[in-house]
Design a protein that fits this description.
heterodimer; A: 293 residues; mainly alpha; MetI-like fold; 13 helices; 70% helix; disordered N terminus; B: 547 residues; alpha/beta; Rossmann fold; 6-stranded mixed beta sheet; 21 helices; 20 strands; globular
């Protein structure tokens, strides 16, 4: 007797399945489009504007929107459009570096804490300790000590994010570890490393991708705050925070200096968070059923 | 049975439509049935037969937007409730009709005392009663359902009761307003066999006292034989056969009913005797497992003896059944044998070698020889991996070549009677029975000497269950395997096992050949278990018919 296995349609490629999801989910579609637009503008900054964001031209100071200066100029006559998109470039680079590094470190801690019972308590207490440090304060202290280099900034913003990611990964590992298929794998002589990599790591990827988007948003905001407080990069490096800070004294005469970078920052954060939310609705099985459908 | 007055429930040509993408149009198609006062009508069917949908339609509890009642009529005590509004139905539910669910733990509110939960029914349906009257009624109900010391149990929380007691609380709630109709959806499936027998007897007695009809949904023909006045057999959303219980069980007309009845394990001893030398392959000596609950205060710590000194041996080519109710330690024993739990003391000998205290890497040398088949076929495969990857995992761990593994995978799939195309599929594409076959194939990939099957057929429909049991028996014979078969169901154990060990509270209370245990049980507990098997009358008759 041969059993006939009920034939489902041939599995589509993952890419095409993902494309279908994106096209059907309006929130995801629009937030993704906005995000891609903002990223493209930042990445192709040198192609989009002929102005150098650092060149001063006192004659053109505090000019409004014009054909020469699309978004006007600041108090030192620098082109605002160029400064915003170069600032965005910096923000996005930083966000990617922060989320990649914090995800890698948090993933390692979370896997170890969730899988090895003995290391669970020490690692998680360490994480609790890090969580107790106010993130912004740590960043200010580290930048003040280490100077405004990109590596210091990444470290300063990434450290407070690590415990949250470790906790997330640990909770996933704790539940997957008890699944019969994990026991079965041990029963077939798999080594611990193999079980971790084959059976447990893949289940953490979905929630991690979602969490990484929120880390991105938080990193961009923290960098902007540091810039605004004057603790970020040196003044000649454009950053969304420092542009806003420099525009503050001229708010009544030239409100665009604050308005445009503020809008750019808000749109960037909004796009990232909305995309993250939509992703979570799709990827997190606990929330997926409740939300829509 | 009472002579036919107006039936309590009459369902006429009910059609319940499934959403567009399903494999069939109707979840329930052209269902007509009646339930008279004091009558118990059983709907029997395998999973997906539409039996629960029928019950849900009567209660007005179909999930909105998914299942739609397309046509037909439902009359409760002569009143058409087919198109009643939600408010009208809510007033009827609990008052004129009540439901008992499969899993009493999830149907009860865990944060509320059970007495208060029963009282809640009165608060909603009879707000005129004062507190003292309600308390009195609640107590009377708890007495009716024969809960021990009802006065104290009324203020217990659900988790403090046993499964059988919780189900009795559910029945008390259902009976609160003296409903005309009780719908019981697999009410004993989650219970141990002794509690099941008690709950069935209770339902049988209560209908005389409360004049209610019962619509009883089950997959178990033995339960039907125990309790039903009339039987309705369903398949693929249609009624296949219906009639009085005696008629249908003794003289089934339809091939499907015959097939289902034939699949019911019925004290027939199916294990073919093993031949040749019978040396011991696996044995345990005085195995003990103690758990201590963690608490900061020493006085609060509780010690649980999961295993209290078990000594057993398994001969080569033998199937040893471990039978017990929940909490008997049978699963702990199986996990110790498969090295998934560590015993506190005692010895496990594999071919005379002590393997009790090997750590994970030392055990690796032996784990090929002992393989486990799990209960839940839906969780024992990694959902992200193709079957081929899962099957190959074990042998690849031992560095076997890809070609050898591939060839063996095809052989094993043929052995468990599955198509070779299964290798490229994901676990969710298979039915429960197919997955259990795959589980067996995966275990066999390691070329083990001992298989440990922990409730390996409990989650399956009877007809599938019978196929898997036959498959295990065939594989045991062909490959000369030894099997430790852990189950709560004596009937299943009888069908497959040479010897049966009955466990209670962590110790083996009886050990003997399947026939001995069934026909001349020595321990009191075994006799209780045997007496609790539903449908004994039918069994006795079946045995007489054979003799």
């Amino acid at each position: 007797m041969t059993m006939t296995v009920a034939l489902s349609p041939p599995p589509r490629s993952r890419l095409r399945a993902a494309a279908r999801v994106v096209l059907h989910d309006r929130v995801m579609l629009w937030s993704l489009l906005l995000l891609l637009l903002l990223i493209a503008v930042s990445v192709f900054a040198p192609l989009l504007t002929a102005h150098d964001p650092a060149i001063l031209s006192p004659r053109d100071r505090l000019k409004g929107v014009s054909a020469a200066h699309w978004l006007g100029t600041d108090s030192l006559g620098r082109d605002l459009f160029a400064r915003i998109i170069y600032g965005g470039r910096l923000s996005i680079t930083l966000a990617v570096l922060v989320s990649v590094s914090s995800v890698i470190v948090g993933l390692l801690f979370g896997l170890v804490a969730g899988f090895f019972r003995r290391l669970d308590a020490p690692i998680m207490r360490l994480m609790d300790g890090i969580m107790a440090i106010p993130g912004l304060l740590l960043a200010i202290a580290m930048v003040a000590l280490g100077g405004a280099q990109i590596s210091t900034m990444v470290l300063a913003i990434a450290i407070p994010e690590v415990p949250r990611i470790a906790r997330l990964v640990r909770s996933v590992v704790l539940s997957v570890r008890e699944e019969p298929y994990v026991e079965a794998s041990f029963g077939m002589g798999s080594s611990t490393l193999r079980v971790l990599v084959w059976h447990i790591l893949p289940s953490t990827i979905n929630p991690l991708v979602v969490q990484a988007t929120f880390v991105c948003a938080a990193a961009i905001l923290t960098e902007a705050v540091l810039g605004f407080l004057g603790l970020g990069f040196p003044p000649e490096v454009p950053s969304l925070g420092s542009i806003i800070a420099e525009g503050r004294p001229y708010f009544q005469r030239a409100p665009w200096i604050i308005l445009f970078p503020g809008t750019f920052l808000a749109l960037l954060i909004l796009a990232i968070n909305m995309f993250g939310d939509a992703l979570r609705d799709r990827l997190d099985p606990r929330l997926a059923r409740k939300g829509r459908n | 049975m009472t002579t036919c007055t107006t039936p309590i429930l009459e369902v006429r040509h009910l059609h319940v439509r499934l959403p567009g993408t399903s494999d069939r149009t109707y979840a329930a198609q052209d269902i007509s049935l009646t339930v008279a006062p004091k009558e118990i009508v059983c709907i029997v069917g395998e999973s997906g037969s539409g039996k629960s949908v029928t019950a849900g339609a009567v209660m007005g509890l179909l999930p909105p937007g998914v299942l739609t009642l397309e046509s037909g009529q439902i009359l409760l005590e002569g009143r058409d409730i087919t198109h009643s509004t939600r408010g009208q139905l809510r007033a009827l539910r609990g008052d004129r009709m009540a439901m008992i669910f499969q899993e009493p733990m999830t149907a009860l509110n865990p944060l509320m005392r059970v007495g208060d939960q029963i009282a809640e029914v009165f608060e909603f349906h009879q707000p005129s009663l004062n507190a003292a009257q309600v308390a009195e009624r609640v107590l009377a109900l708890l007495v009716d359902v024969k809960l021990p010391s009802p006065q104290t149990l009324r203020s217990a929380f659900p988790h403090q009761l046993s499964g059988g007691q919780r189900q009795r609380v559910m029945i008390a709630m259902a009976l609160a307003m003296k409903p005309a109709l009780i719908i019981a959806d697999e009410p004993t499936t989650a219970l141990d066999v002794t509690s099941q027998a008690q709950v069935l007897r209770l339902l049988d007695e209560l209908r005389d006292k409360h004049d209610n009809g019962v619509l009883f949904i089950t997959h178990d023909f033995d339960v039907v034989a125990e309790i039903a006045d009339r039987v309705i057999v369903m398949q693929h959303g249609r009624i296949v056969e219906s009639g009085s219980a005696a008629e249908v069980l003794r003289n089934p007309q339809q091939p499907y009913t015959k097939k289902l009845l034939a699949a019911v394990p019925r004290g027939d001893f199916g294990a073919r005797p093993q031949d040749g030398a019978t040396d011991t392959v696996l044995s345990v000596k005085d195995l003990r497992v103690r758990y201590e609950t963690a608490s900061f205060f020493a006085s609060r710590r509780r010690v649980v003896n999961a295993l209290g000194g078990v000594t057993l041996s398994l001969a080569r080519g033998e199937t040893l059944g471990i039978v017990g109710e929940s909490g008997s330690g049978k699963t702990t024993l199986g996990r110790c044998l498969a090295h998934m739990a560590a015993p506190t003391s005692g010895q496990i000998l594999l071919d005379g070698i002590d393997v009790t205290h090997l750590n994970r890497s030392q055990w690796r040398a032996h784990c090929k020889r002992v393989q486990m088949i799990f209960q839940d076929p839906y969780r024992s495969f990694n959902p992200r991996m193709k079957i081929g990857t899962s099957l190959a995992e074990g042998p690849m761990n031992y560095g076997e070549s890809r070609e050898a593994v591939q060839a063996r995978m095809l052989r094993m799939l043929a052995l468990v009677q599955l198509d070779a195309s299964a290798l490229d599929r994901f676990p969710h594409e298979f039915s429960g029975g197919q997955r259990q076959r795959l589980s067996i194939a995966r275990a066999l990939m390691m070329e083990p000497e001992v298989l440990i099957a922990d409730e390996a057929v409990s989650a399956l429909d009877v007809s599938v269950q019978a196929q898997i049991l036959d498959l295990l028996e065939e594989i045991r014979e062909r490959l000369g395997l030894s099997i430790v078969f852990i189950t709560h169901d004596l009937r299943v154990a009888a069908r497959l096992c040479h010897r049966i060990a009955v466990m209670q509270q962590g110790v083996v209370v009886e050990l003997g050949t399947a026939r001995q245990v069934f026909e001349h049980p020595s321990a009191t507990y075994t006799r209780e278990l045997l007496a609790a098997i539903p449908g004994k009358k039918a069994h006795a008759e079946a045995l007489e018919a054979v003799a």
